[in-house]
Every structure is written in C-alpha cells, then in structure tokens.
Input
Amino acid sequence: MLIENFPPAGSPLPETITVLVVDNDQQIRQPLVRMLSRAGLTVGHAASVEQGVACHADRKFDVIISDIRMPGGDGFDLMRAVRRNDLDVPIVLMTAMPDVATAMTAVELGAYRYLIKPIQQEPLLAVLRQAARTCRMAKLRRAAHDASGRLRRSWVDDRAALETRFAASLRALWIAYQPIIGARSGALFGVEALLRSDEPSMSTPPMVLDAAQQLGRLVELGRRTRKLAATALASDRPGTFLFVNLHPCELMDDDLLSSDTALGRVASRVVLEITERDALESTPTLRDRLTRLREMGFRLAIDDLGAGYSGLTTFADVMPEVVKIDISLVRNIDRSDIRKRTVRHLCALAHDCGGLVVGEGVETQSEHDCLRELGCDLIQGYLIGRPARELPTWRSADTLAALRRLARPSP
Ligand code: G
Ligand code: MN
Output
C-alpha cells in the first residue's frame, strides 16, 4: 500500500480530502491515483479487497473508491468488511461492466455512487468532494451527539434501529396531493405530490428524509416517491400538472433521466421542484442534467424561494419555468410592506424569464388577494385545499392557456 501526498508526522491536520483507491488492475489504479494526487487529494491505494480493508482500518479515509469485480473478493465484500467498523465512510463503486444485478446490490448496500469506467476527471472529483463533505458532516454530527451525552446506545445499534424504522416507513409510504390553482381563474392547475408515511415512529416527512439522508438512502426514497406519485397521475385526466419534490442528490440519479420510468413517461405533465438545501453547484454536470430533463419534457421549479436555503444563485443555475414563493414570505403578506415588495420583484424577475409564480402556504383570503395583486400566477395552501390522499376532483378551465405559457421560452 502506498500513500501519496500525506503530510509528514507532526504537521497540522490535513485540509485535503483523503481517498482510498481499490482496484486490482494496475493499468487503471495507477493513472487514477496519479490524477487524484495531481488534483490535490491525499490518495492511498490497494490492489485487493483484503489490502483495502486493512488500509482503511489503519488510516480512516474520507472516501473509498473501489472496483466491483476483483479476484479474491469483490467491491461488495469490501463494503461489507468496511461497514463492520465504519458506518460513515462513503464508498463509490466503479465498473467497466455495468449491469442491473450489481447496480441493485450497490443500492442495497448503500454505495454512495455507481460509476461506469472510463471515469471522467471533473465529475469524479466533484463526486469525491461531495462524498468527503458528507463523511465529515456525519462524523461531526456523531461527535456532537457523543459530546452531549444524549446517546447511550452504541452507534451500531442506533443504525440498526434506524434502518428498521426506515424500512417500516418505506412500507407505509403514501402520497398526499395538494391542489394548485390559478390565482385569477381559481381553476385547478395541478397538484403537488407530498411524501407521507403511516409509520408511527417516523410520522413526519422531515423525519423520513432525515433518516434516508443518514442511511445514504435518499436516492432510493426518491425513486419510490416518484414512482408512487406518477402512478396516481397516470390514472388522472390529462391537463393538470404534477409537482414533484426533488432532493438535489436525485439530480445525480440516472433513473430520473430515464424515459422508461413511471415518471419519465408522463414527463410533459410534471414540474420537478428543486430546493437548494445542499449547494447545487456541488452537483457535477448539473447543466447537462437539467438540459436532459427538459428534453424529456419536464419543467423545473425552484421550491421555497425566500426560505434562506433557496436563493437567487439557484434561480440563475436552473432558470426555472416555475418559482414557488416560500411560506415565510407569504404569511401575513397583506400586512407587510417589505414582503409585498420582495414578492412583487420576485414575480417580475420570474415573469421576465418566462416563468410562472406560485404562492405557497396561503391560509387566508387576504394573503390570496394580495399575492394575486402582486402578480402571483398560482396559489397553493390550506385556504385552497389541504394535502389529501385523493387527487382533487375539480377541473381546470384555463389549464390549456397556462400550458401554452409554460411551453418553454428559451432561457
Ligand atoms: O417544501 P415544500 O414547499 O414542498 O413543503 C410543502 C409542505 O408545506 C407540505 O408538507 C404541506 O403540508 C405544507 N403546507 C402546504 N400548504 C400549507 C399551508 O397553507 N400552511 C402551512 N402551514 N403548511 C402548508
Ligand atoms: Mn414543494
């Protein structure tokens, strides 16, 4: 085992990302190690599963990247062995021979990414940086919990318990639909699909999302949610839009880019809502992925604009067809000059870029009227309808006109 770029003993803590490369093929391993070292990463490498496991046990890396097929033990054996001692380190798998069986195993074991060789430098670096950040965040969170002394059981037990609860919440998953109507016409424009679970120990959507994040299963959760949401739409009359929330990490899931999925098949009726909880710019190949989604027929929305984590940078990155104004700007807007001014300008900006604006979380008639006066095109909130198991039954008179407006003007 060789380690490149490690600082000499006694030097300050390294700021660089440490990565372990495991591949039996020297022709692949060596150039990869060289490329990562040149990019400033601290790189360890191993030629077998056994060596890799020993290497990681010896010196905890921020992220591991491993080949799948290797003689004497494959990438999955490596994952299982590493997980016995380290629940956090993200493991990126790579293969020259992708197939459904290995991809499914990778998902089941919680691989961070499944990459296909040959691997391009920039996307790989972006993935590794993001993985290292995830790993460090997990470690920090763990340290904070430890320090508070709140957590008495072992982490392994906690993880197992969390996995059990998460599995139960997945089984009890369902979708609630909330109507979105035209601000002027009052006609149904679409519905937002909202994640819900009947599992009592994980009863709120943030609890399910948080568990998925901790367990590295956001992609899996996203796939299930999208499939469930799309199935209901397929049985609905044409003409209304389905708004679906995406976690930014779902943008990296190739399943989202496939036309051969339940959601892909109805893409032209779907608005994908993106919230920038994680920096979007850390999503490699973002531009290409957004272009591909639009080619498939999807429209894109910025969710929760004004909520702190969803900012104007995201707006510029995505050039959304729809902007959703966050509930915090909507609440009591009729009594706040500054909110009125903000929303008026956000509407002007969105309209200038050819987009529509949705006011979210509208609870009173005064908020509704005020938003309409300020230029909001669409309204969503308890005033109109609470999220419910059934799709709203009312029909749209102006959906066609709205559809025409949504026919994508160029950014
Ligand atoms: O982040 P996003 O905008 O997708 O969140 C939507 C959430 O807001 C849903 O969980 C939904 O239940 C909730 N919601 C929808 N309408 C209202 C409303 O009028 N008031 C409040 N307080 N919450 C709402
Ligand atoms: Mn939303």
Summary: The mean pLDDT is 85.
